[in-house]
Amino acid sequence: MAKIIGGITTSHIPLIGKAIDQGLQQTPYWKTFFDAYPPIHDWLEEEKPDVAIIFYNDHGLEFFIDKKPTFAIGAAAQYHNADEGWGIKPIPPINGDQELSWHICNELVEKEFDITICQEMRVDHGLTVPMQLMWPGNQYEHMKVIPVCINVEQHPMPSPKRCFDLGKAIGEAVESYDKDLKVVVLGTGGLSHQLDGERAGFINKEFDLYCMDKIISEPEALTSLTIRDLVEEAGAQGPELIMWLGMRGTLRGELNVLHSNYHIPISNTGAGTMLIENKE
After folding, report:
1. Alpha helices for 202-268 (secondary structure H)
2. How far apart are CA 116 and CA 100, in angstroms?
3. Is 193 annotated as catalytic?
4. CB 208 within 8 A of CB 192
5. Is 125 part of the annotated catalytic residue set?
6. What residue stretches are annotated with the Extradiol ring-cleavage dioxygenase class III enzyme subunit B domain (predicted)?
7. What's 201's domain CATH number?
8. Of these four, 39, 95, 115, 243, which has the most CB atoms within 10 Å of its CB?
9. Which of 103, 155, 193, 259 is catalytic?
10. Cα separations (Å) of 9 from 1, 67, 113, 117, 259?
11. What's the domain count of the chain?
12. pLDDT in tens, 137-170
């Protein structure tokens, strides 16, 4: 049977992709941020997962404000990146796992989740930056990826509890899959940040660290929050925490935090990185 071996949280700021593209990882501005990832690289190399399920949000490449599904899941053989206007070269295609994707989609619909199933899907920095951070040098050709895209751009957005429940349902679907696969789940985005308006540049370190604690010890404390709460506490883009909650919902075993790091400021965003082992 398929098994979820762990979860990873990571920022997906587009400027990270540009730093990678220009080889700036060890410059003073970026070094502390990138130095948080080698322990994750070592764990991925040791565990060798077959599939990565990635909770992320699209920023207008595939879904613009005229058509914005609440939940969209990829069921494609490959996922392609495109130029988003940052002057970053698109990364190589990312391989999908169509069979597992369809299994998850069928299970979600059976559990009354209304999802958009995408047999073609372009992926932006919300997904590509985490791929580059997890597998430096774009060395991810051995991995299969299932994108889970959540609306965090246009109101109304799904509640933290709904996203946690989505993660639970995806975790149950993976566990019911009859192939021996090792699956890692990524929750991307955030933490606190506001990119525009009167509070542009707003970061709430205290709230970010609270979220990093509660995501492990008491996720119900976060699922009781509303989207409005997240905007007030973490800025207009703070609701990206719901991707973390999607990841957390998939983890059902005893959890062990193998690595944790918090760093500000990177592109006016609180960047939280965690490696969570999901024990049986």
Report:
1. 205-217, 219-223, 227-234, 241-250
2. 16
3. yes
4. yes
5. yes
6. 8-269
7. 3.40.830.10
8. 243
9. 193
10. 25, 27, 24, 24, 10
11. 1
12. 999 999 999 999 999 999 999 999 999 999 999 9
